């Protein structure tokens, strides 16, 4: 088999896995393998024969079927099958399989291989969170008993929200445990060896003299952010300015390891060089853990060592393709792992785009041209995927990457040397890590500076899968086709048009009201042809995990009007929103907002605020919204006696939509308002209220059951959870 035929078959396997994004995608790949030769023969004279293309189509179909067979499913006695409808406190016994880590909610988290649920023998992996102090002394391999509430992970309840259920399913997990108490099983002997011990030893050594967050940052840049508890504010800072790759163990670290090892051993035999460098790669793999991006880098590193050992010329593109195929044969689910995708795309960009970029920058010194070309090439190949996943463009990413590259190189090399020393003699590792204080401190200062600049990131909204494939098609054309190579600027303009024009059209035409599914106060977002009204923000977690992701998905960069219905609302959540998105006008019922982080105007009783096509009025704790031809009323935490009083004094006008916090709802209110639709921002609604609404033939939605509720002037009310379930059924 020729190298070209082998490459086509490998690409067909990868295409078959990618085709699982579409219904009947595998059969489409098969059809392409049969039909493609008719057109390819005309454009490619040296094209493989028909038999190769047909085999490639069959491999693509088999790959899609192989993917389906590898999707994790709960076993017959999986612990998730014993979860009841009511939340009950149970005790789960099992073995810890990961190092405990800190979550954003300041709880400890680890994975538990379950063996017993009360008196029932079970199997399955459980996602466990417990109070932070309960994780003291825990490590992988321990047998423990965790007492808490067992639950099934939920699908996203808001557009743009994190799909916790899908995340756990990719890990082969179908149950979560909100733990309260951990008991370590008696009679266990503590393991004297383990990768977790080595990682712990390195982190402690580097943090001892460097302190935090500098020490944790150095450890993350050596072993990857998934292996080290790096503070979330630093992690978010690097992500915001486009330096997330610095915290991900992958090709950069393996290149440094190979370069340092081969340089140190250049006077010794080739066999010794290959042996020690290979051992260093295996050590690096053990420290970082089995991650797709690390495995890809290590496989390519071994390919380079084999080429050195056999005195053959290594073919980087072939090595990359073989590494991808082997890893996906091992775990086809990695095709949809973001780390895997970004790692391969960035590496491909470095291999095929850096050389032509350096040629075009030949008027600059080679070192400076390389410094510019490397981050630019990686950004060109990874940006479309980032837009599809996050919908955000870090505006200063290229500048930050160019300025930080020397610092990242120094810290990474020094961190690797310090880590090796820490394993042998921790005090020496601490001393070497201390030398990295100023480079690390300057790197953090650099990211903070650019993160605080106005417009540090631009939200354009998430692009569709179809847009993603078209943009990458243009990139591939600019790489392979001579005609497009000479007109790469045209491919760039077309790609920008494919991304920006649909986004601009949507922003300019959409009118939508969305009641977000929140755990605290009711939150409403109204999009009016590019202008946004936000009613309430919720607490800090609601802002971070619900409000901002939704606005980011919708491509919102500015909030024209923000209204807090609670006069005692805290300014902390509004301050966080204002740091990420500009808030032009902010209104509260009284002038008592804490902190004055966002300059607020007072919305007085009987005052009508006109915001675009919407009219807003707050009176006696009742928010009235005139949205197009529809009237909405919000009763936010209005007690039963106050509801009756409002109804008796006729301060409740007729409204098509009654929106309340999900607690008490009096029949006098329904008689006065006469709504057609009722929306409860609550996890549960009292059965008596449901019965009352049904008797009055009022359509009921509540966010705990239906997720976010969306309304447009031309359509009905739609529930997010229904869309998620329909999409899942289709797939």
UniProtKB/TrEMBL annotation:
Membrane protein topology class: Multi-pass membrane protein
Sequence ranges assigned to domain ComEC/Rec2-related protein in this UniProt record: 225-483
Transmembrane segments: 50-67, 243-264, 270-287, 316-335, 342-358, 364-383, 395-425, 463-481, 487-504
Subcellular location: Cell membrane
GO terms under cellular component: plasma membrane
Source taxon at top rank: Bacteria
Keywords annotated in UniProt: Cell membrane, Membrane, Transmembrane, Transmembrane helix
Residue span, DUF4131 domain: 24-183
InterPro entries per UniProt: ComEC_N, Competence_DNA_uptake, DUF4131
PANTHER family, per the entry: DNA INTERNALIZATION/COMPETENCE PROTEIN COMEC/REC2 (PTHR30619), RECOMBINATION PROTEIN 2 (PTHR30619:SF1)
Protein name: Competence protein
Organism: Gloeocapsopsis dulcis AAB1 = 1H9
């Amino acid at each position: 088999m020729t190298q070209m035929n082998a490459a086509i078959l490998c690409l067909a396997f990868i295409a078959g896995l990618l085709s699982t994004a579409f219904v009947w995608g595998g059969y489409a790949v098969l059809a392409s393998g049969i039909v493609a030769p008719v057109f390819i023969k005309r454009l490619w004279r040296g094209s493989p024969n028909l038999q190769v293309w047909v085999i490639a189509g069959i491999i693509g179909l088999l790959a899609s079927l192989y993917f389906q067979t590898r999707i994790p499913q709960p076993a017959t006695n999986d612990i998730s099958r014993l979860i009841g409808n009511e939340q009950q406190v149970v005790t789960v016994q099992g073995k810890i399989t990961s190092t405990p880590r800190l979550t954003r909610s300041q709880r400890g988290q680890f994975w538990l291989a379950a063996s017993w649920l009360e008196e029932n023998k079970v199997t399955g992996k459980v996602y466990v969170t417990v109070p932070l102090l309960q994780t003291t002394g825990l490590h992988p391999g321990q047998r423990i008993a965790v007492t808490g509430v067992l639950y099934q992970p939920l699908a996203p309840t808001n557009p743009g929200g994190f799909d916790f259920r899908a995340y756990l399913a990719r890990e082969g997990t179908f149950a979560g445990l909100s733990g309260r108490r951990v008991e370590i099983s008696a009679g266990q002997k503590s393991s004297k060896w383990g990768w977790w011990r080595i990682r712990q030893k390195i982190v402690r050594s580097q943090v001892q003299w460097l302190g935090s967050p500098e020490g944790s940052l150095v450890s993350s840049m050596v072993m990857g952010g998934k292996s080290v508890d790096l503070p979330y504010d630093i992690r978010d800072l690097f992500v915001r300015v486009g330096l997330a790759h610095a915290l991900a163990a992958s090709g950069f670290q393996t290149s440094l390891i190979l370069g340092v090892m081969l340089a140190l051993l250049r006077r010794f035999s080739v066999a010794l060089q290959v042996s020690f460098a290979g051992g260093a790669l295996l050590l690096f793999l053990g420290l970082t853990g089995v991650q797709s991006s690390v495995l890809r880098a290590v496989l390519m590193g071994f390919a380079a060592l084999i080429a050195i050992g056999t005195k053959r010329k290594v073919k980087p593109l072939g090595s990359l393709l073989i590494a991808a195929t082997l890893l996906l044969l091992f775990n086809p689910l990695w095709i949809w792992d973001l780390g895997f995708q970004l790692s391969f795309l960035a590496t491909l960009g470095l291999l095929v785009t850096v050389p032509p970029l350096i040629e075009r920058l030949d008027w600059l010194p080679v070192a400076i041209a390389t410094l510019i070309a490397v981050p630019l090439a990686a950004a060109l190949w990874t940006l479309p995927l980032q837009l599809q996943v996050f919908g955000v463009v870090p505006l200063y990413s290229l500048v930050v990457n160019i300025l930080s590259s020397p610092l990242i190189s120094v810290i990474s090399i020094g961190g690797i040397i310090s880590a090796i020393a820490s394993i042998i003699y921790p005090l020496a590792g601490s001393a070497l890590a201390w030398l990295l204080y100023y480079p690390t401190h300057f790197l953090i200062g650099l990211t903070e500076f650019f993160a605080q600049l106005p417009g540090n990131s631009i939200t354009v909204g998430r692009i569709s899968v179809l847009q993603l494939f078209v943009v990458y098609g243009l990139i591939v054309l600019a790489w392979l086709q001579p005609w497009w190579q000479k007109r790469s600027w045209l491919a760039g303009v077309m790609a920008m048009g494919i991304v920006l024009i649909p986004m601009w059209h949507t922003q300019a035409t959409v009118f939508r009201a969305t009641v977000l599914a929140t755990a605290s106060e009711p939150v409403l977002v109204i999009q009016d042809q590019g202008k946004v009204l936000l009613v309430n923000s919720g607490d800090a977690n609601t802002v971070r995990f619900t409000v901002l992701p939704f606005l980011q998905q919708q491509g919102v960069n500015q909030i024209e009007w923000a209204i807090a219905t609670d006069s005692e609302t805290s300014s902390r959540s509004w301050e966080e929103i204002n740091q990420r998105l500009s808030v032009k006008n902010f209104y509260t019922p009284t002038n008592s907002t804490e902190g004055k982080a966002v300059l607020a105007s007072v919305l007085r009783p009987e005052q009508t605020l006109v915001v675009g096509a919407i009219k807003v009025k707050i009176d006696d704790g009742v928010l009235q919204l005139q949205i197009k031809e529809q009237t909405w009323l919000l009763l936010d935490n209005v007690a039963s006696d106050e509801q009756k009083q409002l109804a008796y004094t006729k301060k409740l006008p007729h409204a098509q939509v009654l929106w309340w916090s999900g607690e008490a709802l009096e029949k006098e209110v329904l008689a006065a308002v006469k709504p057609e639709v009722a929306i409860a921002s609550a996890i549960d609604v009292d059965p008596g209220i449901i019965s009352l609404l049904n008797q009055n033939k009022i359509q009921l939605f509540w966010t705990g059951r239906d997720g976010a509720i969306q309304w447009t002037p031309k359509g009905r009310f739609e529930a997010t959870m229904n869309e998620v379930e329909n999409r899942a059924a289709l797939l």
